[in-house]
Amino acid sequence: MTKKESVEQFLNSKCIAIIGVSSNLKTYSRMVYDAFCERGYNVLAVNPKLTEINGTKCYPNISSLPDTVDAVIIIIKGEKAKDILNDAINKGVKNIWMHLGCNLKNPETITMGKNISLISGECALLWLQPVKGLHKFHRFLRDLFSKEN
Fold first, then answer.
1. Mean pLDDT value across residues 65-79
2. What is the DSSP string of the chain?
3. pLDDT score, position 94
4. Rounded distance, CA 75 to CA 87, Å?
5. What are the phi and psi torsion angles at 22 (to 5°)?
């Protein structure tokens, strides 16, 4: 599957959990959460330090999510990202997006052979339609200089 096909499949998911959502409106994780909510997605927030965001329940971890979750965006750095990725796989999530800031090397080695669509090293806001603001310009540059779309 091409990256574009993986992204389209991800964006067609019925229920998306965003791992690492912050209560701070200015953080990237919160911008992603708000952008998906604004576009009508069924979005669930995951952060063990929060109980709610905007009056909506916030889950402490992936295992506490309902089984209806079919996609996750991981916005956690380092070794924690690896643990979260494994938790998502164990939960049965088939569409996983690892934000480029996760800094996890070769996440595809973890998902290989597990029938999982993995997107890594990409910013979700470059793909979420309509692309707005600064991300629209970044998308233009990415498309201009990228060999893969």
1. 92
2. --HHHHHHHHHT-SEEEEET--S-TTSHHHHHHHHHHHTT-EEEEE-TT-SEETTEEEESSGGGS-TT--EEEE---HHHHHHHHHHHHHHT--EEEEEGGG--S-THHHHTTS--EEEEEE-GGGTSSSP-HHHHHHHHHHHHH-S--
3. 96
4. 14
5. -105, 155
Calculate the CA dihedral of residues 11, 15, 20, 21 and round it to 10 degrees.
90
Domain boundaries, the chain: 3-145
pTM of model > 0.90 = no
Topology (CATH) of 3-145: Rossmann fold (3.40.50)
Q: Which two tokens stand for residue 44?
A: 């669930």
